[in-house]
Specification:
The protein is an alpha+beta fold. The strands form nine sheets. Strands 15-21-22-29-26-25-23-24 form an eight-stranded mixed sheet. A hairpin with a 5-residue loop joins strand 33 (638-643) and strand 34. The radius of gyration is 31 Å and the shape is globular. 34% of the residues are buried. It binds one RNA strand of 75 nucleotides through strand 11, strand 12, helix 11 and helix 18.
Amino acid sequence: MTELLKISLPDGSVREMEPGSTPGDVAAAIGPGLAKAAIAARVDGELRDINRPFEGDAELALVTNRDEEDALELARHDFAHVLAEAVQSLYPGTQITFGPATDDGFYYDVKAPADREPFSMDDLPDIEEEMRRIIKADKPLRREVWSRQQLIDKWEAEGEVFKAEWAKELPENEELTVYWSGEDWLDMCRGPHLASTGKLDPQAFKLTRVAGAYWRGDQNNPQLTRIYGTGWLNKKQLNAHLTRLEEAAKRDHRKLGREMDLFHLQEEAHGSVFWHPKGYRIWRELEAYMRRKMDKAGYREIKTPQLMDVRQWEQSGHWGKYAENMFAVPDMVPEVEELGDGPANPSVATDADWMAIKPMNCPAHVLVFKQGITSYRDLPIRLGEMGCCHRNEPHGALHGLMRVRQFTQDDAHIFCTEDQVVEEVKAFIELADQVYRDFGFTYDVKLALRPEKRFGSDEDWDKAEQELRDAVAVSDMQGEGDGKLEELPGEGAFYAPKLEWHLTDAIGRTWQVGTIQGDRVLPDRLDASYVGEDGEKHRPVMLHRAIFGSYERFIGILIEHFAGRLPVWLAPVQAVVATIVSDADDYAKEAVAKLEAAGIRVESDLRNEKINYKVREHSHAKVPHLLVVGNREAEEGTVAIRTLGEKEQRVMSLDEAIAMLKAEATPPDLREG
RNA sequence: GCUGCUGUAGCUCAGUGGUAGAGCGCACCCUUGGUAAGGGUGAGGCCGGGAGUUCAAUCCUCCCCAGCAGCACCA
């Protein structure tokens, strides 16, 4: 007789099970309720099929829909399989490739048969219907171990060239598995899966879009059709998610930017922003705020040239790596052909010298540092610049304010000795923490490590990476997310590892904004040095850093985070004084004058319109405070304040109102206490 | 840059092989009304750009440009 398996459960109890039994059997042994609810299992911590037999003694935790993270992951992965099966069932000859779960659902990359157009949005309803049919058929999902050769033979026999290619690269020594859906369809998959398609809720998913995607993510490979879906455990969750998407769409900074008259974009300067008075007001407030923070933190602001000789960029290494994304201009007086009013067509001399518009500020800052002779006594030197840069981004990458071709960074470079690095990084971490908290953001910090293509010695990279870790360890960060420093191998810049700050906005999306990078490459390439205590020349370490990242992007994030309802200190118009009747015009003008004198950005609305109309219009314009005045207020020297987002009005004296607005309009760094 | 979709009034969008329409906004008139749309009148468009098919193109075809959704990229 074979020995029984000892299965330990989370409550500490141990059950003895026959060899060959499964987590499902354990659930059944515990009780019928659990047997029904259990959808998968964690066996020794690994998420597994409910019906996959134990291989020995094990620790078991049964997974039910209450373990939402696991349950969602399983369901989404299953939805992806059902999607692939549905597509092949409807359109024989379709090749399948790969289809994982995503943050909110799943996708599957497929290649339409040669005799058919790629799949489009119009195909989605049919595919959804077929998916529902497969779910309702409640097909068992059965795991089976295959050899690599079996897999290759199967895919080659069926003309699945992508799958075959993939199978050939699978490791020899690992257990390879397929999952059957019923008896007529299977996919190569590591699993785990639910026990059958019927465990999915047919009302809990929706196919959302189709898009192109490259085979294995490489743009040199064939392009496939990626079919996206969102998938959940039940219809309620799905609807909640669809509502969230609508919310996000309402917050879109491109839409709000137009509605609030902040900025616009147009073809003739695509990827560059036309800031309108109200939008630029936000910019100016941010810039003034950042200048105060940097001045106090010991930075000195500079301004460097927009155009530099291309040779300078060759020396820094940027030309070699990023030339195609840089704007170059010939350094010459153009000979304009005699075309009268015809199209502009200046000819460029073939021997022209080329200049490039700066895509970044670093080399120029090194050049400032290199002027004169620097002593170790002068270090650290912190050079800041509101640096306007241009990058010729791939056109498909442009996106409102978030990805533009012209942007301004709150940039600075800190030149310091080896010994000062950790301290300087720590100071920066704490500065960034203050700034993000002033805007009400929470954030995560990540460490991007050395990329494959890089400059500099491994020794220097070891040092630079460790310095950043050390600085995080000793820093006081109050706004930090989960407290863990996530490391991202291969994601660093070609000259330095990066700490990255990822903000989380009001609806849970994350955005990378701030960074600090410990660079030993550029100082070397551009021959920057200081004189040490020993009288010898030494290389300084150069820390690249930014907190907003770019003004454009940061403003875009702020707009979406606050859904346009910016804090009073940032609001382009902080208050509007609106009259109910024209008899109150003089009093309204007096109120506006007093508010202006108190430094409030205020406008008056004396138009011959009903108060309802004015309330509606200024609410849409996201003006924080509407000060309503009629005959009553004019007589009593009061205002009726209606605050954005509130239904009730508050009546107070004009002086009280001014004091309140003044307090709210004070930037966070200038508030007392 | 790649795939798909889109481009008509300031904005949001209808529409047709015979050179266009709505709502909002804007201007003017009436209305002075107490907290999210008072009424009337009017102006406003080379239907993204170029080429082709056609007696005739905003509409069909091709090329370009830009935007959108992904992908790839992001110093």
